UniProtKB/TrEMBL annotation:
Superkingdom field: Bacteria
Pfam families recorded: RadC, UPF0758_N
Gene3D superfamilies, per the entry: 5' to 3' exonuclease, C-terminal subdomain, Cytidine Deaminase, domain 2
Protein name as catalogued: DNA repair protein RadC
Keywords in alphabetical order: Hydrolase, Metal-binding, Metalloprotease, Protease, Zinc
Family under the similarity heading: Belongs to the UPF0758 family.
Organism: Massilia jejuensis
Annotated coiled-coil segments of the chain: none
Domain MPN: 101-223
Amino acid sequence: MGINDWPEQDRPRERLAREGPAALSNAELLAIFLRVGVRGRSAVQLGSHMLDHFGSLQALLHATPQEFSQVHGLGLAKYAQLQAVMELSRRAISEEFFRHALCSPDVVKTYLRGKFGLQAYESFVVLFVDVKNRLIDAQEMFRGTLTHTSVYPREVVMAALRRNASGVMLAHNHPSGMAEPSEADIRLTRSLSQALGLIDVRVLDHFVVAGTRVHSFAEHGQL
């Protein structure tokens, strides 16, 4: 039975309009994205099959084009559409983030979850702020493999000088899923704090992002 044959009150699109997106399951949200199913499977059943195939929503969203296309009924067109939706979401979060002073770690964490949440590679981002903790710029400065990123303090110092920043917040992701900082992360933070301190730029925090979890150095007394 196709979704159009369901009672109207049970159809995902109608339920979303009536109850809001939070009321829908992951499979139902995927069904709205897919629009149609395949022979023998409704869009909701196909969405459920996608989740079973990849094991989790995170794994589905991290899939490569080749992995995504292995599921019957999917292909590069659907992959491109999904990537476009996710990028629009990230940009919307960034727009909102840039409007606010960074007065709360929770504001920064929300932004970083959106920025790093679906990255399969490790990267290092620096948030530059003025004396009132208003965001001047957010820049990905270094990109590495899944396990290592080379970060050069001299380049961070030069970037802070160019922006006349009063402080910085550091952030990087752990695609492995472990939010706890490594000893190398702690040493790097100290090295950057010392280098930036020479030009009177404070390191306000360092965040490690792993999926939805974010570890704050400042909150754990590690600065």
